[in-house]
Write a structure and sequence with these properties.
By secondary structure, the chain is mainly beta. A hairpin with a 2-residue loop joins strand 7 and strand 8. The protein starts with a helix and ends with a strand. The structure holds calcium ion (2 copies).
């Protein structure tokens, strides 16, 4: 009798467990953002930001962390999307979402954390950089070689995109002899699919230095001591020669002691 009761109990436990497992299977999984473009917004400027990820085509709501009712935000086009150039769709997701954001003009530079909701819950927090419009320069194509290099103002952040496979972006800047210039690319540490490589050259196009990954991130950093007064070049490309909409980056050059 006791044995039979035990067997019944065990059976009940099994069926309870399996219905719990079924319940779990039915519950939709939370969405995830794997990439975004551009990587930044400017206060007072309405911007369309594209997100790539898992289950974003059923997005219903967007929120900021901490909550900020002064930001105007709207979810726009939601759709299924193919995996770009051979990337694994399970990793980067097969959906896209557009959000149109206006951050108030008074907001100071920094970061803006956000989350997207679907029936399955909220995405983990992601962040956009907030950079004043006057401190940003946009990349201008064509800039694929030394002859068509884009001259840049080193006091500003350049915002660019490796827009297709094998795209290389080249920028020109001036430096004085002995000046130390720290150059870095921000991409992977934000939410870009780009694995950037940066390379620096002198005015004749001779290689000076290069970096792929630094400080535990796929984003490179290099410090150049200018050997003489004159023009220099810096190039940005993808380590795997890939490119596309979600291969955005920021390039910053600053003089350091
Ligand atoms: Ca480009
Ligand atoms: Ca890299």
């Amino acid at each position: 009798m006791r044995l039979r009761a035990f067997a019944l109990l065990a059976l009940a436990a099994v069926s309870f467990r399996s219905s719990e497992a079924q319940e779990k299977e039915k519950k939709p999984e939370p969405p995830r953002v794997t990439a975004c473009a551009p990587l930044e917004v400017s206060p007072g400027v309405t911007a369309t930001v594209r997100l790539r990820g898992l289950r974003l085509d059923s997005a219903t709501e967007l929120r900021f962390v901490p909550a900020d009712p002064t930001i105007k935000a709207e979810l726009k086009e939601k759709k299924k999307a193919d995996a770009p150039n051979g990337l694994d769709v399970k990793e980067i997701g097969d959906t896209q979402l557009e959000m149109v954001l206006t951050v108030p003009a008074e907001r100071p530079p920094g970061t803006l954390k956000y989350q997207v909701n679907t029936g399955g819950g909220w995405t983990p927090e992601r962040e956009l950089r907030v950079i004043a419009g006057a401190a940003l320069i946009d990349e201008k194509e064509p800039n694929g070689g030394f002859r068509e290099a884009q001259g840049i103002d080193r006091t500003k952040t350049l915002r660019g995109v490796i827009k297709e496979d094998k795209d290389v972006d080249v920028f020109a800047f001036k430096a004085t002899a002995g000046e130390r210039i720290e150059t870095r690319v921000i991409a992977a540490q934000s939410a870009s699919l780009l694995d950037p490589v940066l390379t620096m050259f002198d005015a004749r196009g001779q290689f000076l230095c290069s970096n792929d990954d630094s400080a535990g991130s796929r984003d490179p950093m290099a410090t150049l001591t200018a050997p003489s007064d004159g023009n220099y070049f810096v190039s940005v490309q993808d380590a795997g020669d890939r490119g596309g909409t979600f291969y955005a980056y920021e390039l910053e050059l600053k003089t350091v002691p």
